[in-house]
Write a structure and sequence with these properties.
It is a single chain. By secondary structure, the protein is mainly α. The protein has one domain. It has helices at about 5-15, 20-30, 35-40, 45-55, 60-75, 80-95.
Length: about 100
């Protein structure tokens, strides 16, 4: 695991060329992945670009990045809770197809 000083050096180096330099600085300031996503969303960043940002800046795998995006879009629900909330609507929609 990197020390804070080593992480800061890596972040400072990336800032020179990173399209996500702003989010590198947020991370260095202690903002977590969810907070960075919410900031990006408020600034109009689309989900695909936000996924790339979370993966690059926060070094998340695809599933973890998607989980943060769902939490941000669903008011803090976990991915499982969000999917469980979809179930009644899906059941009702399929009942209408019969």
């Amino acid at each position: 695991m990197e020390t804070d000083a080593v992480a800061a050096i890596h972040i400072n180096h990336r800032q020179m060329t990173s399209e996500f330099a702003k989010y590198d600085r947020l991370k260095l300031a202690g903002v977590d992945a969810l907070g960075a996503y919410l900031q990006a969303k408020n600034e109009g960043m689309d989900r695909i670009t936000a996924t790339r940002m979370l993966r690059k800046v926060y070094e998340l795998d695809l599933m973890a990045a998607k989980t943060e995006i769902v939490r941000g879009d669903a008011g803090g629900l976990t991915l499982s809770e969000y999917q469980e909330n979809l179930l009644p609507a899906l059941k009702a929609a399929f009942q209408d197809c019969k």
